[in-house]
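REQUEST FORM: STRUCTURE PREDICTION
Request ID: SP-0412
Submitted by: Lab K.M.
Chain count: 1
Length (residues): 711
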Amino acid sequence: MRWLFVMFGTGFAQSARKRWRRFSVAASVALIAALIGVLVLDHLHPPYQGRLRDQSTLVLAADGTVLRAFATADGAWRFPTTAADVDAKFIRYLKAFEDRRFDQHPGVDPLAIARAGWQALSAGRIVSGASTLTMQTARLLEPRRRGIATKLAETLRALQLTWHWGRDRVLDTYLTLAPYGGNLEGVRAASLAYFGKEPSHLTEAEAALLVVLPQSPERLRPDRFPEAARLARDKVLARLRDAGEIDFSSHAAAIAEAVPAGRRPALSDAPHLAERLRSLHPGQSMIASNIDRRLQTRLQDMLRQRALGLEPGATVAALVVENQGRKVRAYLGSADYFDSRQFGPIDMVRAVRSPGSALKPFIYGMAFDQLTVHPETIMVDQPMRFGDYAPENFDHLFRGEVPAREALQLSLNLPAVALLDAVGAPPFAQRLADVGYPLHLPKDSGRPGLPIALGGAGVTLEQMVALYAALADEGRAGELSYLAETPAPRTGTLLGPLGAYYVTGILEDTPPPPSWLAAGNRRLGSRIAYKTGTSYGYRDAWAIGYTQDYTIGVWVGRPDGSFSTGRMGRDAAAPLLFEIFDQLPTGGSARAAMPPAGALLVGHNMLPANLKRFALPDEGGSNRRARDRLRIAFPLDGATMVMAATGGSVAPFVLKAEGGKLPLRWMVNGAAVGSQPYLRQTQWDPDGRGAHRVTVIDAGGQSTSAEIWLK
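STATUS: Completed
RESULT:
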């Protein structure tokens, strides 16, 4: 018997071992197959990024705050956000309220699942959920209909997200996609919309509200249902108090804090620059600029107020550059981007306009470098002709002999044209082009001519500020820097140190605008070197100035290019230029501390003979006789003029001549125009739009004509 028992027991044990081995092998095969299946599924279905791929573009100020945000293709404000962007207390509250073991579990919390199941069995209904922040993130990435299959998919995706991305990236994704009502997605968008500030500094009440809103973003929207939002927030605060996350005094202060009653306006500071940077960097979610946020907003208010005093259709633009690194600190393409009556959306920083006299300092600077003249060289301001070109001063007056310094400060036209004739218009224009700022010449104009000295070419405010910044840097030109941490490269030498030094000294001694002085000079610690300009027809009023630290440009005019009513750079743009300088830190003189080699700091009498007087071409002959030459002072040849209506009829135009022998006879299109025989002007009633030829004939038989266009 014992033998039979031993035999039977031994056979049973051997059979059991065989069955266990077969089970172990089968289980191992099944586990390996399952793992292979999971790996295949993971490979075939990698983590889905969903809306994370389409985020709002944010243009940031130098301090990291948002200047302007652009909605996504589906109209959402979906701002990229990381945990580092958010107040630490919010992250702590979020985990305490939504997912206490977020930092331990692999994406799914088994303890939470067990707790939720036991509560459901005990109560006969669902008491609490087991969804983790990672599972919620998976649902935000792939929204589906609710159900058991969806829960299973979210569970698998949560495990996959933790495996591939790690907990930090999962949290960042939640902070970017969590819904906050309407088109707000993400903590940053919600904080800016409801509180008007970045989420990096939140109160306990604000943090609690942002924690609870994603649970039911439409039902709890504070801008629509403030009481529901308050109750939900207070529920979170009570739980945080009970969990020891906040003390009783902080809890009492938090529940007493009001919830926001509405959404803040969309972020829209520096709108012209923001659109420009966005178009230059497509697909980039965050673009960091060099804009000084506080300065930008102050100037936006200042320009908006200034534009109220302008006629309909006129606006103001300004550009502020920090000379060190050429960093653009404020960019205002118009007084109000959203005012279509003033052509607000047009970026006048980049618009091509006539500079008037604003290019004259560079003509003088090149002449100083070439030792053609010295600031104390005597120049002659008198009528003169350069071939067929006979320029005049803006006020039609002539001042005779003046030092070059005074000629530039008074912005006299004749000396400037004479200097450009000596320097050469093509070399002058080529020098500007060589440093990256070419002039925009009129179509079919051929090579650059002398009229560019008086505004006969196009420039932009951006170009003018960059050129004047070179004067502040001893003549070294460079690109303007719009992006943070992007150094502006040098583009070449515009002027030598000598020319820049002389020009800066002259512009620094130019008296400030009277209206600004009348308000009280508030800049005692620095002097501003500046120049104004006014284009033909008062279309453009300019003022560009610089100190050792900053260069600022201001433009005032009508974006549609039509005539303005007597607006000049000195009256319209210069006072605003000085007011903007008042917003900046005071600095030293714009002029270099030490004069460059070769500088002659002497009076006129001590100058070398060749620099005492600038000789005009044919000074003893034809330019004296130019006073007697007949010419049409108005309208100018090639002018386009706007017909104005008064009392139901077209207002007459004044025709004015200078020089010649009286009496004068006027003709338009070959037909005589009535005039008083011993007056140099008359009136003409136009008979229609289009091209017209104005001719005047003097008593000696001289005649001259001007081709004009009426619209």
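NOTES: The mean pLDDT is 85.
Reviewed by: T.R.
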